[in-house]
């Protein structure tokens, strides 16, 4: 079945626009972050964009919050998806590359699927669980130091071949305490990006509740402003020389990240979501890290290690499986229920054919109109 997005014949460039803008905005932020401070940059990414979104919402006649519950939900949404998400993102981007950071950020559908499983009893399914496992493996390969991965893999290989774990394999050598371990991990920006992804995942779940009280576009605008104000305060209190080193090119990069990477990207995304299937649209989220990796490699000369490339591969496959698990499962079931597969199963064993048909029907009732 064609998705509603396709049935509306939305131009391909418009479909991929939000993901292109988000991916390239990461590259723009990385390009300027060495000349400014992370919390100040996060503030500029949020507050002006929030004002722009609210101006557009006013032009469209969207209603402002009418109850204290609405403002309370906006406040919570702002703290999680604004302050924490953008704060962790900017701090993490200072310590890692734009492409790698984007992969970590866009792993958030993995966390969303887990939370939806326990909060809303949503079915994850075999493909979803496979995607979650691959995602955890990919994030581990991206977030843990390469030497830890290499030493652990080497030690595991030795243990399997000899039956003994090599005594010299100690990935925690030189770490005197748990605090040292946390400092080592958080010193790698990938883990701050993971915290940003978890914040975004919680925000994604929260927006369903926020929308019960407030127009989602209005909520998006206000949450950007409210989420940016604590970052502005923290920047004023803890950071110095926030803007003195920013060049004209840097200000243009900030302008691009704010106007195109925040306000316009969210606007296009909400427009597409209102016109089509959000599930189909979410299947394109893997394009964001692809764009970020492409442009960070070509414009910023960022390079990944072999371990990190393997982690990128696992994570992108995981994002696709988690987002598209229902579509893929339905396609597999329809294929198994087809006459060709059934004839092969019947030729092998009538019992196999019956068992296969029973399993297919238990997974998804067959529409008589769809039978050949």
From TrEMBL:
Topology term for the membrane: Multi-pass membrane protein
All residue ranges annotated as the EamA domain in the record: 13-142, 189-323
Pfam families reported in the protein's UniProt record: EamA
Gene3D superfamilies (UniProt xref): 1.10.3730.20
Compartments, as annotated in UniProt: Membrane
Tree of life domain: Bacteria
Ranges that cross the membrane: 12-33, 39-59, 127-144, 191-210, 217-238, 250-273, 280-300, 306-323
SUPFAM superfamilies the UniProt entry points to: Multidrug resistance efflux transporter EmrE
Keyword Transmembrane helix belongs to the record: yes
Cellular component terms (Gene Ontology): membrane
Protein's UniProt keywords contain DNA damage: no
Chief location: membrane
Listed InterPro entries: AA-Vitamin_Transporters, EamA_dom, EmrE-like
Family membership: Belongs to the EamA transporter family.
Family matches, as PANTHER family: EAMA DOMAIN-CONTAINING PROTEIN, INNER MEMBRANE TRANSPORTER
Protein name: DMT family transporter
Organism: Leptolyngbya cf. ectocarpi LEGE 11479
Lineage of the organism: Bacteria, Bacillati, Cyanobacteriota, Cyanophyceae, Leptolyngbyales
């Amino acid at each position: 079945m064609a998705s509603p997005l396709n049935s509306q014949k939305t131009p391909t460039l418009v479909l991929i626009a939000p993901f292109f803008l988000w991916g390239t905005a990461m590259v723009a932020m990385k390009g300027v972050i060495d000349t400014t401070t992370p919390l100040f940059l996060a503030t500029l990414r949020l507050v002006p964009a929030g004002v722009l979104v609210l101006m557009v919402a006013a032009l469209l006649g969207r209603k402002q919050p009418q109850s204290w519950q609405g403002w309370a939900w906006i406040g919570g949404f702002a703290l999680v998806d604004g302050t924490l998400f953008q704060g962790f993102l900017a701090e993490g981007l200072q310590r890692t590359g734009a492409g790698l950071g984007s992969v970590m950020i866009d792993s958030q559908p993995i966390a969303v699927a887990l939370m939806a499983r326990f909060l809303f009893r949503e079915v994850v399914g075999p493909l979803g669980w496979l995607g979650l496992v691959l995602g955890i493996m990919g994030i581990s390969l991206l977030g843990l130091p390469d030497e830890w991965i290499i030493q652990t893999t080497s030690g595991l290989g030795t243990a399997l071949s000899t039956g003994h774990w090599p005594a010299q394999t100690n990935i925690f050598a030189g770490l005197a305490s748990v605090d040292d371990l946390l400092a080592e991990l958080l010193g790698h920006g990938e883990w701050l990006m993971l915290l940003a992804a978890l914040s975004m995942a919680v925000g994604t779940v929260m927006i369903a509740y926020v929308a019960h009280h407030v127009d989602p576009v209005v909520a998006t605008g206000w949450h950007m402003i409210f989420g940016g104000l604590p970052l502005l305060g923290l920047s004023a209190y803890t950071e110095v020389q926030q803007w003195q080193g920013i060049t004209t090119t840097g200000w243009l990069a900030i302008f691009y990240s704010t106007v195109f990477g925040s306000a316009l990207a969210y606007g296009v995304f909400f427009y597409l979501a209102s016109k089509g299937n959000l599930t189909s649209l979410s299947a394109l989220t893997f394009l964001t890290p692809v764009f970020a990796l492409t442009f960070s490699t070509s414009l910023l000369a960022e390079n990944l290690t072999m371990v990190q490339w393997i982690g990128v591969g696992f994570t992108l496959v995981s994002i696709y499986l988690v987002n598209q698990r229902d579509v893929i499962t339905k396609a597999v079931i329809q294929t198994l229920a087809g006459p060709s597969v059934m004839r092969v199963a019947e030729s092998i064993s009538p019992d196999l054919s019956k068992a296969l048909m029973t399993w297919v029907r238990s997974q998804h009732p067959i529409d008589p109109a769809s039978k050949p």
